[in-house]
User: Fold this.
Amino acid sequence: MPRPPTKNRINMHDIVEQPLSAIPDAVDAVLRRPEPLDEVEVQSIFFEGSFILLRAEEALSAKDGNAFCALFKLFSEGFAHGEASFEEGVRAMAQNESLLQTLVVIFRVVVEQEALPLHSAGTVELIHMLSSLCDGAALKDKCGAAFMRGFAKVLQRVNASAEEARRHFHVQRGAATALINLVKGSKQNKQRLASWKFVADCCAASVDVFFQLQCVELLFRVSRQNKDVFLHIGGALPPATIEELRALPNDGTLLSRMTLLIEHLNDGRAQVLRYPLKEVVAAETTLASSTNAYFTPNYVIVMITAANADNVTIPYRVIRSITLGRDGRVIVRLEEFPVKLEVLLSRTAGMDTVTFYMSPEELAAFKQSPVRQWIVEALQRRKEEQRQQYDPQHTSHTPPPPPLPASAAATSGIAAATASTAAAAAAAGVSPPSPEADAARKKARVEGAAVAPPYAAQPTVAALLHVVDALVEQATTPNEAQAMLLQLRRLMEARKEVQRGRSMDDLGDAMQRIQRCVDDARRTATEDRTAWHLAMVEELERVEGLVVAAQDKTAAGVEQLNDDLKKVKSSNQAINERIACMDIELKQTLEELREEEQRWASEIHTTCMRDAERIESEVDQQLVHRSRQTALLSDYTRQSAAPHH
Assistant:
């Protein structure tokens, strides 16, 4: 029996240690293999966590955003691989405090010091990875202390530029996801920020329906612990919206009520157009039925499920063409595929489309809406960015080119008309012919289009050159071919002049709109400044009242303290006087005792002396008496011993 083939596992250290310029392609090749990463390979990502963060810091120092983005894609892939790998990643970060500290430093450099553009792919990947990390129970409080204020600043920076905030959606969604993960199940994190008004401001200014739902969820979660949060967001949202926020229930109808709240908030807004869809099909696969599509000036959001607000967001810049069918279909062909649709879509004919099914009435309203104009403008911006990427020295005042030969002149004239013909084709819903995209081109792994999409070869030029070749082949003589090409060139130049005149008119209209916006901004700034001044005056008066009240309370407290001190002092004086009296009494008693002792000692001494004298006298008498008897006995003995004569 033949031995089954063994899998050649990838050594993440070998991937990460490559030069910075080679890391993006290497990581992309790893993540786009036919076989997914196995558990051992995912574990090696977290095992090499310190080395990955070290290379990320090196990429920041070298201002290499592509390498920085690719390195954090590895972390994101590890966290998203499965529940077990997510827990392992959180555990690895919790056990190694230096990893978390390094992430804090990188986050501050990117966000606060603006080492990378706010909406760059590197910033998006960093925030996406941190939002996953903030969902770990073991690190929730630590991440709240380290990143919560930073995420709040990110949303405030995003909201500072309304136009940029409406063009992009990845950063604000990632920051909102991180904040939701931080406050979910953590009372401590819900109290870290003094005010949540910035969330209400972002919700009111945004045209991203999914981001608005995130803001509503965030305010709902915070208000579950602190109902006063609604007192600080007055003015940011309409009173009716705030009342709907207060009334949100914590049950199975929460998501539907939140969606209804957002629809009421966006009702009447020209930049958020909602169209009910009967069905959404991506490459012959039904994604959803009876849902809604929300068209904004830069992207369309399609709600997929009503259970968890899952959605597909398609930026207009990744659209190749859009076709309106008579049966209520809106057929969208994509140049690049959003991440959620990568598995379904392909470059095969008919498999690169997303179809929206509307009712005939909704389709008629859609035709009259500005959505197609928004798409055309997005495609024109993409072509302009691609042209500038290949021609960085190009300006609007480019000098005319020198005379060319006939064939070259015809080619140049056709190339000059490319932009106008492409715009007309997009407006009519007809897709210009395009070859297959370059196989080496790398697609972004964040949802929707990449922040800086790669340049694709201009297919319209190739198509028109093919038309030129066909005209040359149809001509009978070279002179006839040259005349046809010259005539075509004059036609294109005339069309170019007409287009230039229209552009100047559009420029004048744009300048007028800009001036109106500036005037409106100045008027709004004046009103806001006046309102802020009045609010600050009221706040200062309130603070002064509080200070006066505090001073009164302090004076009363000091007076009470002085009275207590006086009482204590009087009490101490009485005690001292009593102690002095006791001292005098003790001294008197001691003197009396000493005198009594001396008297008793004298009496005892006198008595003892008399007794001693008496005893001495008696002893003397006894001794004298005994000595007399002894003398008599001696005499008697002496006399008895003497011989008788």
Summary: Residues 478-641 form the longest helix (164 residues). The two ends are 170 Å apart (CA to CA).
